[in-house]
Design a protein that fits this description.
This protein has about 400 residues and is α/β, with parallel strands linked by helices. The protein folds into 2 domains: about 140 residues, Aspartate Aminotransferase, domain 1 (Alpha-Beta Complex), CATH 3.90.1150; about 220 residues, Aspartate Aminotransferase, domain 2. Helix content is about 45%, strand content about 10%. Strands 2-8-7-6-5-3-4 form a 7-stranded mixed beta sheet, with helices on both faces. It has a 3-stranded antiparallel beta sheet with strand order 9-12-11. The longest helix is centred in the C-terminal third of the chain and has 22 residues. The mean pLDDT is about 95. The structure holds pyridoxal-5'-phosphate. The site of pyridoxal-5'-phosphate has 13 residues, from helix 5. GO terms for molecular function: transaminase activity. Its EC number is 2.6.1.-. This is Aminotransferase. It is an enzyme of class 2 (transferase). Belongs to the class-I pyridoxal-phosphate-dependent aminotransferase family.
Amino acid sequence: DISLSDRVQRIKPSPTLAITAKAGELRAQGKDIIGLGAGEPDFDTPDHIKQAAIEAINAGKTKYTPVDGTPGLKKAIIDKFKRDNSLDYEPNQILVSSGGKQSFFNMALALLNDGDEAIIPAPYWVSYPDMVLVAGGVPKVLETDVNSRFKITPEQLEAAITPKTRLFVINSPSNPSGMAYSVEELAALGEVLKKHPDIIIATDDMYEHILWTGKPFVNIVNACPELYDRTVVMNGVSKAYSMTGWRIGYAGGPQKLIAAMKKVQSQSTSNPASISQAAAEAALAGDQGCVDEMVKAFKERHDYLTAALDALPGVKCAQGDGTFYAFPDFSEAIANLDGVESDTDLAALLLETAEVALVPGSAFGAPGCMRLSFAVGMDTLKEAMRRIEQALAK
Ligand code: PLP
């Protein structure tokens, strides 16, 4: 028998990828599954971005690049941070990776010693706790609920901080809740963090552009500029430009930490794909109109879906601020259903009887809730709701 490392035994496979795979299997068996589990936009990558990749191939840009990214892409990222976020970075403060997932992984490995604590508000992106665990850290999960719009308070943050706290993670707008913190809320969290100078802050801005609060996007460094020297700003092209398969994410932050993250990457994957980097450069530097079109569609679906979910008996669904996820609280509906004890049971039931794939909230640290991606067309979404309603009525 092969004995595996303690490190790998601490973690589990990504539940969202698992649900997507399961839905794919059932579909291959001929079932008419509606997949609301996946974390990716349903739009195609815009043409001008694809064209840039084709040109890169034809121009022979098919070799290793610098580990931390091509000078052209790094410049486009620096310009983007300036343009969209009013943040200034030097090239040695930027690291391009194979997806935002790798950016975070690099950071966890570069930052955490065994036993170091990372504060992660729930509901969280499924990968944060596991990446912290693989690095030897200890996730400290802060609970929230639909009544607080799934946002933590400064008091909660303060109470969670110990001498071992090394990292605070914030993701706004949030996958899975769809909620965004206001500038005032971020400033209040920043006030707490200012008192604890050893804590590094990771702000995951992946859904920055998929936002409809009517106010400009802000992250915690915008709200509290004093945190600049210890904040890593993470972002990527997957969601905003519908480029999930290209695998490009990036981070801007303190030079010392970015250099350490680059060292980790240099000994694991080296540079992200050269062709994808050319495409990402075109995405960030090119016309941003393509983003607006997608956001318009997401908003329309959001308005329909959150209202339809909230109208279901035993279901409470708040309006989100952005992303392409709804995160309704199904706990009352679960309590009312015979043979359904948990959100995981309910997800299994909906997959079998309604043939709708969605992800149970416990995967995100929020049992009783469900995550539905609205990265499908309106007709499909309406059909999914019809099926869910029918399954709950039984
Ligand atoms: N951060 C959040 C909050 C996400 O939802 C995702 C993707 O699901 C990522 C980061 C990573 O995306 P990628 O690795 O495709 O850049």
